[in-house]
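Service request form, structural biology core

Requester: graduate student, group of Dr. S.
Request type: structure prediction, single chain
Budget code: on file
Notes: please return the result as structure tokens.

Sequence provided:
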Amino acid sequence: MKKFAKVIIIFTIVATLFVSVGLLFGCNKNSDKTITVCASDVPHAEILEGVVQNLLKDKGYDLKVTIMDWQEQNGAVAAKDYDANYFQHLPYLLSGDFASSLAFTCKVHYEPLGIYVGGGQVLSVKRTVAICNDESNAVRALQLLEANNFFSKADEGDNYPITTDGKLAFASDKWTSTNGALEVTLIAENTLVSSMPDYNFVCLPCNTALTGNVSAEYRAFVESDPAQVGGKANGLAVRKADYLADSAYKAKIDALTDVLLSKEVADYVKTKYNGVIICDAQTQIDMRGEIK
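Core staff response, request fulfilled:
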């Protein structure tokens, strides 16, 4: 009988230990203080590691940043490999395959696209311009070219290169103005800088110019429209369903979002990038109330 009682006591102790360990691991998982973000190198990862990381430590969170190809980041967050990503503007997110599963909690900074002087010989009959072959950035580049009188909607008529819903109106990799004075070529973003000697002008996204060490002194025109600056500011993309249903995930994302909207981040961006990148009240926009 005593032997049986000892067995019962041992069994009870072991069972209690299993329950305690289970609760411990469950508690640790729910109170996880590590935030994982995949990001483009410049300026996104630099901003996260240069200022956001330390500010989050003060809130009790450990930020882990992974530099990743921008074409893979939305899929990586949707697959739960990372908590969030930071590389894109909202129109790009909404135009892709993850528009329904990911959402912005905030916009942070704007990287103005510029028209840079290339090395191609400027001819009186034709100017050549290279732009990014990503549709969102291509439309943005064409709008900047139009705003600076490279061509006009009135002159182009049916040949106007942008549709009414803001997409490319031509399917090939080249567009030529009606009078033949302008030829625009779509090329891969990672070849824009190296291709500068081949064109009269090249439209460079801000981060492409930064990573390619292209000086602003070669920039002839730059985006400055307030609607463009606020509308296409880069922001933090997160999983919509988890943000709405998982309190632990939401707490981490809210902490990160609050820091990205802080004055400290705005001051860091202004100082580090000499005012080339815009990060202020125009771009730091809280969008959490729009997630439904």
